[in-house]
Amino acid sequence: MTSLFSLLLSLALLSLSFLTTAVSASEFTFQEATIESIHLAFAQNRLTSRQLVDFYLDRIQTLNPSLRCVLEVNPDALAQADEADRLRAEARGGKGTLGNLHGIPVLLKDSIGTDDKMNTSAGSYALLGARVPRDAFVVERLRSAGAVILGKASMSEWYSIRSWEMPRGWCARGGQGVNPYVKSENPCGSSTGSAIAVAANMVTVSLGTETDSSIICPADHNSVVGFKPTVGLTSRAGVMLVSPRQDSIGPISRTVSDAVYVLDAIVGFDPRDEATGEAAKFIPMGGYKQFLREDGLKGKRLGIVRNPFSNSRGSTAASIFDQHLGTFRNYGATLVDNLEIENIDIILNPSKNGEMGVLRAHFKHHINEYLGELSNSPVKSLADVIAFNSNNPDLEKMEEYNQDGLIAAQMANILDEEVVKAEHMMKKLSEEGFEKLMKENELDAMVTLGLRAATVLAFEGYPALTVPAGYDDNGMPFGVCFGGLKGSEAKLIEIAYSFEQATRMRKPPLSFSSEFHYQYYYEQSYGTM
Fold it and tell me: Domain Amidase, which positions (predicted)?
């Protein structure tokens, strides 16, 4: 009875605290909550990490059967939230300091390893039960920053390499991910679940991975911010790789500032990923939050590339994009319009650019290395994965999609002459195309409508940042993509943040929105006092 009375008294005091602080601060809203608003609610004792995690778990339970974007929730998520609340209480008493993501729930793409009770399966049943040797480096950094690891997000199985016929966003474990804005439209992949969950307010932020378009495309299609850093800025150690020359780990969020909070937490040198040694020189003293400037467009020189990107999204999107160009000018940017990327037709043509052959060969090589480090794994090589699929046709839903892509990868080799030639061609296409465009026009960023420029930025590991920019006549989202030379994250953040603050185009998906204000959810969850 005493403990029950204490609980009721604590809840009553919390309700009273909310009522008194609401006068001096805007009411906290779970929907579209940002890291800054959550931290403010924490500081004002209007929210706990447990309540936040409870809310997201309820959203996942309610919406995931329709959206199919979360493969599993972390059974330790509530315990992590309770620990975050305990440490926050200690910090108020002058004991210890808190990380910038303290108590913030984060979803991870299902190819990012966690040494806990969850699986890391790339969407496939072949890896259920396998144990990774350690947390991925980016997961270590998230935990150090205080984040709550909420669960694993669905993805295109084996990064869509499984089959040429397989639609983006499908995996055997989760089925087909669903776009929360237009259910019949492509949610895009391979970081599908990471984007859908953030868009539908099922988590604060998430992590995705990109080889070519796999952060930018789902972010664009689901009206969220996607940030693919320069290759090597974030470590790939502990993450299933497709290609070390292209793969990057980055945040997906509802705002640019939230993406930057996550980026600050996960960048840094890692001796297990040699690419981080070269990229570490790009990380600024004081981190990236200092570049969240509303006047960030002022003085920037932007290269506008319309062909062939603007024509691919329809007349409504193209018209809105033109309006955004006016915003860039009004906020002090200089535009160099109607630029052309040399050999763009080759760059965007998979049958000519050689990229697919390179990616298959690299995937085989690196997935074999990754699988070899696992314990308790049913598969130890790509050949084992193919055999598992063949031996478990019902489990892996072979009647729906075959594994011709995996078989093609098994036949490839990184030392094959055509693979080596293709790598040289991709490098040359980048140097004579995107790099030449940027340097000759002295640009701070390239600006395009939609996502297709992600491929331009993929070949040599350049950074890309997409921001919600509008919706077409059918309600389908589209973004504006900002791309820069290696290490130009600071400029991209300034430009993207200024654009976002000036336009504020993102809207939550109507079909999956609910105006859950703090007091309403509090009363529903804990009762009225």
Answer: 52-448
Nearest to residue 30, comparing CAs of 509, 520, 516? 516
DSSP summary character for residue 449: E
Give the C-alpha separation, 19 to 28, whole Å.
12
Question: Which pLDDT value is given to residue 321?
Answer: 98
As a whole number of angstroms, the distance between CA 183 and CA 40 comes to 35
Interatomic CA distance for residues 69 and 193, integer angstroms: 4
- Strand ranges, E, within 92-178: 105-109, 148-153, 170-171, 175-176
Q: State how far the Cα of 261 lies from the Cα of 239, in Å rounded to an integer.
A: 21
List phi, psi (to 5°) of 517. Answer: -80, 160
Domains in the chain (CATH in brackets) are: 30-281+291-526 (3.90.1300.10)
Does the pLDDT value for residue 493 go beyond 70? yes
By 3-state DSSP, what share of the chain in percent is helix, strand and coil, each rounded to 5? 45, 15, 40
What percent of the chain is predicted at pLDDT more than 70? 92
Question: Six-digit token pair at 65?
Answer: 């059967």
Q: What is the mean pLDDT of the chain?
A: 93
Distance CA 325, CA 297 (A): 11
Bridge partners of 477, per DSSP, are 471
Q: What are φ and ψ of residue 333, in 5° steps?
A: -85, 150
The pair of three-digit structure tokens given for residue 414, joined into one six-digit string: 């990184």
- What number is the average pLDDT over the span 408-433? 97
Average the pLDDT over 13-17 and give the result: 39
Q: What count of Cα atoms within 13 Å lies in the side-chain half-sphere of residue 488?
A: 23
Mean pLDDT of 86-93: 93
Long-range contacts of 39-45 (CB under 8 A, 24+ apart): 39/102, 41/518, 42/88, 42/102, 42/103, 44/17, 45/14, 45/17, 45/21
Place of tokens 């144990």: 131
Per-residue model confidence as pLDDT tens digits over 108-145: 999 999 999 999 999 999 999 999 999 999 999 999 99
Query: What's the DSSP call for residue 28?
Result: P
Q: Can you say whether the dihedral through the CA atoms of 416, 419, 421, 424 is positive or negative?
A: negative
Residues involved in catalysis = 109, 190, 214
The Cα 245–Cα 30 span in angstroms is 39
Strands (E) in 331-483, as ranges, are 334-336, 445-449, 464-471, 477-483
What is the largest distance, in Å, between two alpha-carbon atoms of the chain?
76
* pTM (whole model) above 0.85: yes
Whether 358 contacts 343, CB under 8 Å? no
Rounded CA gap, 41 and 116, in Å? 29
